[in-house]
């Protein structure tokens, strides 16, 4: 009998029964007040009058009225550049202990996002909340004795100007609690290997020594790791070497696009739990098995606001217009796309994280990620969000019985006519003209604006199929393998031309 696992599971269930949750709207008001109190004497707090905001009748309204939206470029130019230079008390008291490096999905130059000690504590506390939520998933006691494979970026952080730098997954893994280290794989030594291919090769070689019960990481990189382990040991599926694998916690992107290809690597289904850990903080996690939506972390270091994701508020480069309205948690509705705005214990203020979300349950503050603001395709009025794109691709997977874990597209001119040119990552041989027609019909059904565009300025759809590995090698060329790196779903014409040359050379 799994005695230790029974004890751990019982402790988690007991904690869950003892801890009562503060209503989300009330929790958010408390978080905002704490943020303003803590930062009122920083340069940012003095400039924007945090003391006056705290004395106002409605701090949520006064806060949104007083402070403009900040994307990374504005935040850095106006404020974080001084934090990078080592100055104290700029947007948060003192200095950050770390900088999270993030090239995201849209840029070549890495962003340097401050990570304070308070943020490390907030991420750790939310991690404990997520572990507590496992009691809702009816997992057997012996699961809690198994090891957890966390595949993120390297934990060998770089020292620069007195600060440590790395991707947020590497920073988080380097700060795991001492009591968790016995469960954590691949372990400190392997996790410090900077070269992703070398790290995954080492994992494959050591895989037989571990009893993995759970996986954690971005789906595309987890898939590649599993394929390497299967290939190295000449297996049919991953359960032949890790028979007790029962849980996968996905992070940073929606799991649905990868579901079919991921399941091909398994002998039987496992529990998939979505999480949302961004470079700026631990935003949300799936709390219950009845849904794949994630609960916003409303009580732990992040204050959320929401801009309706409408074409009139989105500039051509994906930025937000200054006059775009903003809602707090008490004002949002279900099934509406919003641009996510956050203020955090690392000194990000009304910060545009770049993601769009939709609420599936307002009372529970549960959301799904629907896309990126810069991946909103509105050339010739088509108004396509990533969520609409992925919904159409899931229809194609069912219709043609194929897997399409990766894609990218652009609106381009051929013979002076606009087309949407899609590159679909699939191992299956399917007639591309049939795919293009089916994709076009699916998008027309899903989006009336697209249907209108197709009757006017948008001439049609072109599809090119390539191996999914090409997408991963593109990321390796432009950024780095593994970690938080994600594929750009929409490209401008210049980037798309570069992509097409890369695909041609790769093949």
Structure characterization notes:
Residues 1-14 have low confidence and may be disordered. Helix content is 36%, strand content 22%. It is an alpha/beta fold and 507 residues long. The chain has a domain at 377-506: GMP Synthetase, Chain A, domain 3 (2-Layer Sandwich), CATH 3.30.300. The chain starts with a helix and ends with a helix. The strands form three sheets. The protein has an eleven-stranded mixed beta sheet with strand order 6-3-7-8-9-10-11-15-14-13-12, sandwiched between helices. Residues 297-362 form the GH3 middle domain. Residues 390-494 form the GH3 C-terminal domain. This is GH3 auxin-responsive promoter.
Short description:
The protein has 507 residues and is of the alpha/beta class. Helices cover 36% and strands 22% of the residues.
